[in-house]
Design a protein that fits this description.
This protein has 615 residues and is mainly alpha-helical. Helix 6 crosses helix 7 and helix 19 packs across helix 20. 58% of the residues lie in helices and 3% in strands.
Length: 615
């Protein structure tokens, strides 16, 4: 009778003549109440006082811990019957949202495939590669792509999914590693050990990129040498940004660079910078540059410091003239000295020549910051710049005359005379060319040496390395019709060098022959590896060996710019207030700061914290 009335009793033993509450035994606590007293009857011990059964049972079912146990039982039944979700799915809303987004993206594609299958029509067309929205009316790219393209007109989710399905090359930060031993062998061992901690297959290393420090790039005991001993396919690539910076810094051994740096340092103080800012606001409020820029130690061609000085030169002169009238003798004398320096003919001509060359090299420098750049593009850009500067060198008289005419017109505005320095019978510290006109003197003493040094540096640091990667350039030929014996030799070299990735030499040659035929039919050839992977991904899926080579070419490290940007984050994170931060905490802060888009939701932290405390 009691069991029928109190359905929550599940266990009765005739032997001990006792009963238990099934809910509280399974999901109830051992202690309850304000004093956290240990529970006895119906939970941990059997109930046997049957004369008090009605009162005891009524009191028990009103207890808070019994109600909580009943709710737990109800939730389990709902989850088992599919009426509700488990707690992990309820908490992890981010996972739910991602699952719903993925379903919404896949559903229209699956529906389109089912429509084609039910109607018995083909999915593919004559040419169905490349971006889905780049098709013209003359090209039949298949029923599936046409259906998806038509359906995307009224489905913004599908349209965004189709637009953002291109292959992208990513460079991700992993961690900062403290090192003590700076020898190449020790550094290489540290790099490999930390990569193994992430359970990466080191046999798949295909490239390594560093700057030109001896510990990193030495042929015998550098990091690259020790890694190449273990993994021969890990091609070493000298950072192209460092190469460009060294090429320009070696070329710019001219007096204008240190003077521009001194002027920036002079105006960095608030009182002096206020004079310059007021002068710019009053006389040139619409200039592109509104302030001077500091010469970047590693990429100073990119900071436009020279062009900023050239544009603001008149404002700088006006500001310096005003500061020369200050009562502070030290500041006024320094302003007079800087005015005399920028009035020198050699400085004016050198600054104009550098500004002309920087307009070309800055294009390469900016492109080197792109993550999707590959070696073929870098070499092509360097070749274009080399050819342009070489053309200037060939027609140096004409080019320098145009520059000199502009310099003379500017000098007249500032009431400056462009003159030759005094010549001497014997001079070791500067150019001492005995020539008639002032224009020819500065052309020979400044412009031509600058061009020659720049050309030689670009050739040594970029173009001479072309032969190292010439074999990979067969992937993107400029003329696909020229499939010669030399091309076959390069393909054989690739098959041998990347034997771990390539099936066989004969298969690779056959794939290249078909790949070149496919390229002949394209109206526009792919410009770089990432372009080919996105535009021709359908056809490349039929050439697995070439596809692997494209992945290798796209992933070879061109620069270390992305890596070095993490040191800027480190400078902001490791302040004097965090001088004792542990390595794991510092890496955690760096990961949060650098990978903002990958930061998990708060619920994932709660689940992780719960599991860690349960274990």
């Amino acid at each position: 009778m009691y069991i029928n009335e109190c359905w929550w009793i599940c266990a009765f033993s005739p032997t001990i003549n006792g009963a238990f509450c099934k809910n509280c035994v399974l999901f109830g606590p051992k202690f309850a109440g304000r004093a956290q007293q240990k529970l006895q009857s119906l939970v941990l011990t059997s109930f046997t006082k049957w004369k008090d059964a009605t009162e005891t049972f009524n009191n028990h079912q009103n207890n808070k811990y019994h109600i909580n146990a009943e709710q737990t039982i109800y939730s389990l039944r709902s989850i088992k019957n599919g009426e509700s979700m488990d707690i992990i799915r309820i908490i992890d809303t981010g996972k739910q949202e991602l699952a719903l987004q993925n379903r919404s993206r896949l559903t229209p594609i699956i529906d389109a495939i089912l429509v084609c299958g039910i109607q018995g029509i083909a999915l593919r067309g004559h040419r169905d590669s490349g971006a889905i929205f780049d098709n013209d009316n003359n090209n039949n790219d298949g029923n599936l792509r046409a259906i998806l393209r038509n359906r995307s007109l009224g489905d913004p989710i599908l349209r965004d999914n189709l637009l953002n399905c291109d292959i992208q090359i990513l460079e991700e930060f992993l961690q900062f590693i403290p090192v003590v031993d700076m020898r190449g062998e020790a550094l290489a061992k540290t790099i490999l050990l930390n990569l193994e901690k992430y359970k990466l297959n080191l046999n798949l290393i295909r490239g390594q990129g560093y700057d030109g420090a001896p510990a990193m790039s030495a042929h015998l005991n550098g990091v690259k040498a020790h890694i190449l001993k273990k993994y021969s396919s890990a091609i070493y690539v000298y950072c192209a940004s460092h190469s460009l910076n060294l090429a320009i810094s070696d070329s710019c051994a001219l007096p204008s660079i240190p003077i521009i740096s001194k002027i920036y340092d002079f105006f960095k103080y608030p009182k002096r910078s206020d004079v310059l800012n007021r002068t710019i606001s009053k006389n040139a409020p619409e200039t592109h540059h509104q302030k001077l820029k500091k010469m970047c130690p590693t990429r100073w061609v990119l900071r436009d410091s020279v062009s900023a000085f050239i544009e603001l030169e008149e404002m700088i002169r006006i500001s310096l003239h005003e500061i020369t009238k200050w009562q502070d003798s030290n500041v006024s004398s320094e302003a007079i000295s800087l005015l005399n320096s920028i009035d020198q003919s050699e400085f004016i001509i050198a600054a104009s020549c550098i500004n002309k060359l920087f307009s070309y090299s800055s294009i390469l420098c900016r492109n080197l910051q792109k993550p999707n750049l590959d070696l073929v593009q870098v070499i092509d850009l360097a070749e274009n710049i080399y050819e342009q500067v070489d053309e200037i060198r060939t027609n140096v008289d004409e080019y320098f005359h145009n520059i000199y005419v502009d310099i003379e017109s500017k000098a007249q505005i500032y009431d400056i005379s462009i003159i030759k320095p005094r010549l001497a019978p014997r001079q070791l510290m500067r150019c001492n060319v005995n020539i008639g006109s002032t224009e020819d003197y500065y052309k020979i003493s400044i412009f031509i040496p600058f061009l020659d040094t720049f050309l030689s540096q670009i050739k040594v640091r970029f173009l001479d390395k072309k032969e190292v990667f010439a074999n990979l350039q067969v992937l993107l030929p400029k003329d696909p019709s020229s499939f010669s014996h030399g091309t076959i030799n390069k393909i054989k070299y690739l098959a041998k060098f990347y034997s771990y990735d390539i099936d066989s030499e004969i298969n690779l040659i056959s794939e290249f022959e078909l790949w070149y035929r496919y390229l002949l039919r394209l109206p526009i050839l792919p410009e770089h590896a990432n372009d080919a992977l996105n535009r021709c991904k359908d056809i490349l899926a039929q050439f697995p060996n070439i596809l692997k080579l494209f992945y290798i070419l796209a992933c070879l490290p061109i620069t270390t710019c992305t890596n070095e940007r993490t040191f800027s984050n480190l400078r902001r994170l490791k302040t004097y207030l965090r001088s004792n931060t542990s390595e794991s905490r510092l890496n955690g802060l760096a990961l949060l700061n650098i990978h903002r888009d990958l930061v998990p939701r708060q619920t994932k932290f709660l689940i992780h914290w719960q599991h860690s405390h349960e274990n």
